[in-house]
Amino acid sequence: MGRESPLTLGRIDYANAWPLFHHLDGYAGEAGVRIVSRVPAELNRALREGETDISAISSFAYAQNSEDYLLLPDLSVSSVGRVNSILLFMKRPLEQVKNGRIALTTASATSVNLLKIIMAKYAEGQPQYERAEPDLDSMLENADAALLIGDPAIRASWSAGKLHVLDLGELWHRWTGLGMTYAVVAVRKEAAARWPQAIASLLQAMRESKRLSLGNPQALIDHACRTIGGEPGYWARYFTELRYDFGPMQQQGLALYFRLARQLGLLERDVHMEFFSEQSALQVNE
Fold first, then answer.
1. Pick from 1, 3, 51, 249: most CB atoms within 10 A?
2. Handedness of CA 57, 121, 160, 83 (dihedral sign)
3. Which residues form a coiled coil (predicted)?
4. What average pLDDT does range 99-128 have in this prediction?
5. Span 159-177, mean pLDDT?
6. What confidence tier does 249 reach under pLDDT thresholds 50, 70, 90?
């Protein structure tokens, strides 16, 4: 990283993450922060390989590389109940699908492994999984169910017809009583050590973007209607039901998710969540 300071920030290219980034463009231009927008799987790789310094990434990707990252406090894409954009589309009810064939989106890691946890621990099933590009019709050609996330899941939910649609966030909350965190914002430890003040400033800007977005979501609603479709009422409920903080219910839910993933062999080691310290950044400035 032979730069003097400008940070590269990874932005999830789905509506569910818009509030964290919607009001950042002005700040980014002034602060010299370069923003790259990609799907979660691409952002996971970019942060891991050092192409970005700080990024919204899948929670599961954080767990896989937690020794290299610090979490930014107060920021996540979570739900306590319905998430509305992580959906399992089934030809038949869950009881008849749990030992069948399920097509999985290639776009994210958290949701795929959440489904595997639910199938193994909640439904006590043993389905066969296959990876597929996120197109519902083609995914269901040879599978009993298909997992979609993000904007493709939202669009598919509007025309699901006779398919059974399972919201994984809603099921997780009903099963555990906890929230579920799908994406976190993580910074590479070497970037945090080199530019602590810049990271602290960006953290504050993302908090402010979240505050402004949720305080007046009409701009997000209008943008969603223009770019994705749907009705304003749907998007008003969508952004209201998602959570963007990272409080105790989200952290407890994510810790449980990590433990269950470890039990199933989806993670190679236990995960201890480490957070970026703004106090350390202030001390550097003194």
1. 249
2. negative
3. none
4. 94
5. 96
6. confident
Please tell me the distance from the alpha carbon of residue 178 to that of residue 173, in angstroms, as a whole number.
5
Residue from 87, 97, 86, 95 nearest 145 by CA = 97
Mean pLDDT of 200-227: 96
Mean pLDDT of 226-231: 95
The Cα 88–Cα 132 span in angstroms is 14
State residue 282's pLDDT score: 54
Among the residue ranges 15-19, 38-42, 127-131, 279-283, the one predicted with the least confidence is 279-283
Domain boundaries, the chain: 8-79+180-285, 86-176
d(CA 3, CA 195): 11
Phi and psi angles of residue 212, each rounded to the nearest 5 degrees, phi first = -65, -40
Could you name the CATH architecture of 86-176? 3-Layer(aba) Sandwich (3.40)
Q: Which band of pLDDT confidence, cut at 50, 70 and 90, is reported for residue 281?
A: low
CATH topology of 8-79+180-285 equal to that of 86-176? yes
Distance CA 184, CA 204 (A): 15
